[in-house]
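Troubleshooting log. The previous structure file for this entry was overwritten by mistake, so regenerating from the original sequence record. Sequence copied from the archived sheet and checked twice against the printout by T.R.
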Amino acid sequence: MSNGLTNDHYDYAIIGMGIGGLTLGALLAQAGKKVIIFERHEVPGGYGHTFRQGRFSFCAELHYVWDCGPGERVYQMLKQLGLEEEVTFHRLDPKGFDRIVAPGIDYTIGSGFERECRRLSGAFPAQAKALDRYYQTIAKIHRQLYLLPIGFTWRTILAHPGRYSHIIRYLKWTLEDLFNKLEFSPELRLILAGQSAIFWAPPRDLSLVVQAGGVGSYDQGAYYPAQSFMHVMKSLRRKIKQSPGCRTMLSTEIVQIEVANGMARSVTTAKGEQFTADRFLFDGDARLSLDLIGAEHFPTAFRRKLEYEYGPSVLSVYLGLENIDLRQYGFGEANLYWHPKVDLNEVYDDQLADRIPDRPYFFCNAPTLRSHDAVLAPPGCEQLVLVAPCRYDFFRKLRDRSEDDYQAAKMQYTKNLIGVLEQEYIPGLSDHIVEQVVGSPLTNEHFVKAPKGNCYSTPLDPKHVNLRRLNYQSPFPNFYYVGASSCLPGFATIIHFACMLYENLTGDHIS
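Regenerated output below.
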């Protein structure tokens, strides 16, 4: 539907219905702008989209999020849209929402740095002072990150050395650099870095600034939608769709962005439809804009910004279960991070090798124990989701060689993951599986158009998380980026970035 629009010119054309594109589209539509938003997939949400399999609905890659409580960033965005009562979030148990398991370790992380510091100091008394310094450092970096304005540069930071002192000091540090400085034991390192599935990077590679951003945010609360992630995405899309003069187009791929006289002018769909706009927003991997616009239109210096590497991908296993109560096996709202070894660097070495590990490292959760929305599973059924980091190239080579070899590898990986769960937690789990969907890095690449199936665009290491990192600006004054490649990844982080971009574009302030 065109909502009565008589021409194909818009104030804003948005390419991609990921969480950034949907947030910006909804805010701009609410402000009275004429918005058109495109999505090549048949459902909105990007990595947060939901797919149906039999009687179950699974969210592709969002598992739990932060900044969703009253007064926090996600809530304020929803309030701006009048959706704060329609789209609500359940706070996961603050006493424990991430369970870290490895040989000799079974520790559940909750909210409150002071509380966690006391608990861990009791378990590791010789490292109590070092733990206090660790949490103080993480908290200070986290606070300073949220003071950064959109489009900041090294000049922004150096102009305010006091305000950004910890970012300046620790920008080139890895998490392991801090661990080494504080002389933490291997067991304590695993507990503190055990939530690595937030970032899919081991301590020796993970940017300390990124660790602070994520762990510091979860310290304030971990959340899951009271309904489902499908409800979140559909509510934002509906806000755009029902606004006068606005339009949303699913199953619509943009194949060209026309640039003339240094400005973006129009977009063309795979069906040959052309739409013009005053401004354009790109919610996708920024490097993909080179092909859509033409690399020749980009200055050499900017093209270098787009020469980043891609981070790891994952194998995801979605299970629909029947005639089982997962609570009887120790499952609840908490995520399970299961490690075959204590040394997390070694865990990643094994996991990202060119083979299928016998006992893979994985992240696991049961969405149906968090939300009672009937869309997730029918009565009497449960959902279980397992996610394991893996190498795109391993599956790509198998697929190029043989479809049978590729499918066999997916099934063997899945068998090994379920085998660990059956051996360690849920005997006979396989007997209760009525739906099973397996997504590989190639699945991510196909459905979400994530190059090499990446989860977070670039690796989250100091090499890529730096002051030269891409931000919202392109070489064209009316073309902007939003999404993981132009800010740090994460549901709430991208919403925060999209809100700042909205304020920058419109002058309107989200209170």
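The longest strand covers residues 313-322. Archived copy saved in two places this time.
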